[in-house]
């Protein structure tokens, strides 16, 4: 479902943020721009009347969409280079569907996870040269990793807009660090309050788990993504190659070591939600009811948690094994390859990523901005409101691991779900070596279309009438 709202007002001035800098996020030689017209017109040239308004597609919660409406109204009131027509979607799934339906807006917001499919369809026009002309500070003005995550083939395909790392939310009534410290328990260093170790996380989970009160310590989602922060923090690898993965790397020695250390805690049935509890309510609902001490999540949980009467909460990093690490989501603003006026489209992006415009959107509380200035401001940190340690979102970005672009991510998670469930929730003793080898094997045909199982390789004699014994020894893979 989406709404297209034309917002057209008289143009009386120019409001575009121009910050002098060079494109610092990409290396290598740049390809020629897709159309020669863009390099011949000036960044602020008046668009041809035939091109009409720039269409802008965004997604978000109602408060965020209202902020975008305000930004577009201001732009249309003051712009001398063109007008904007706003198209809104409820979430990134609806946005992708709207884009793939064949009539994408000139400028649109996407999740980085959807980048491979759009690139395969040649649906994007790179933004690096257009934004460089407008003085966008790719170096210090924006979270470097987020910007680089949209770099493909030595071109910046889209401009990073938001970056939301996974953190831990803690119920401060169930996880009371002051009370724990008085009892001599492991608690985070108050001088480094954004981070905690695996041992401190364990102590907090044990402190929050009170069977008599029906409370539990934590919940970890049984997915590849749910385990990724623990793997990366312990020095392991989720994929066998961070640029062109052909397999998961759960059976790698470093990864197994990280899993062995973290699963010693994560598999503790006394600390995590039971199957029966999960059938009755979601982990977030248990947290909101005051019955779950620790919950992993992103910044978009904050407004909902603030609205729960009597809920006292804060935020802290994912547990640190060896070094701080996490995963998260990144969104970007892209220009359609079919946009009739790329210069006008780039003007719109330059305005959207300006301090003034981003502050309007982050005030709703859902988003971590890629704009570094706004990320460090009170507009984002909101120091008088929970969570008190909002700085953890910015601190965690520095340890955020950007995964390789995998167009089959959803299919991979589905294929691995039962095995990851075994890692985290199967009763009794775990054969870590066997399960991790299975996880990697299941991933290979999904990540590598050319993968041929050994039993099906040209050298295999499976099914040969000349070697009847080969069928017995070849296995069933």
Report on this model:
- By secondary structure, the chain is an alpha+beta fold.
- Helix content is 38%, strand content 13%.
- The chain folds into 2 domains: 2-7 and 18-164 and 329-375, Periplasmic binding protein-like II (D-Maltodextrin-Binding Protein, domain 2, 3-Layer(aba) Sandwich); 167-316, D-Maltodextrin-Binding Protein, domain 2 (3-Layer(aba) Sandwich), CATH 3.40.190.
- Strands 1, 2, 3, 4, 5, 8 and 13 form a 7-stranded mixed beta sheet that branches.
- The protein contains 21 helices and 13 strands.
Task: Sum up the structure in keywords.
477 residues; alpha+beta; D-Maltodextrin-Binding Protein, domain 2; 2 domains; seven-stranded mixed beta sheet; four-stranded mixed beta sheet; 21 helices; 13 strands; globular; disordered N terminus
Helix-strand layout with pairing:
Elements (H helix, E strand, L loop, with lengths): L1 E6 L28 H5 L13 E6 L2 H17 L5 E6 L2 H9 L6 E5 L3 H6 L3 E2 L2 H6 L10 H5 L2 E2 L2 E2 L2 E7 L1 E5 L5 H6 L15 H11 L7 E4 L4 H10 L19 H14 L8 H6 L2 H6 L3 E6 L4 H5 L6 E4 L11 E9 L5 H11 L2 H8 L9 H4 L2 H4 L9 H7 L11 H17 L6 H16 L20 H6 L4
Parallel strand pairs: 2-3, 2-4, 10-11
Antiparallel strand pairs: 1-3, 4-13, 5-13, 6-7, 8-13, 9-11, 9-12
Helix pairs in contact: 2-15, 9-10, 19-20
Structure in a nutshell:
The chain has helices at 36-40, 62-78, 92-100, 115-120, 128-133, 144-148, 177-182, 198-208, 224-233, 253-266, 275-280, 283-288, 302-306, 342-352, 355-362, 372-375, 378-381, 391-397, 409-425, 432-447, 468-473; strands spanning 2-7, 54-59, 84-89, 107-111, 124-125, 151-152, 155-156, 159-165, 167-171, 216-219, 292-297, 313-316, 328-336.
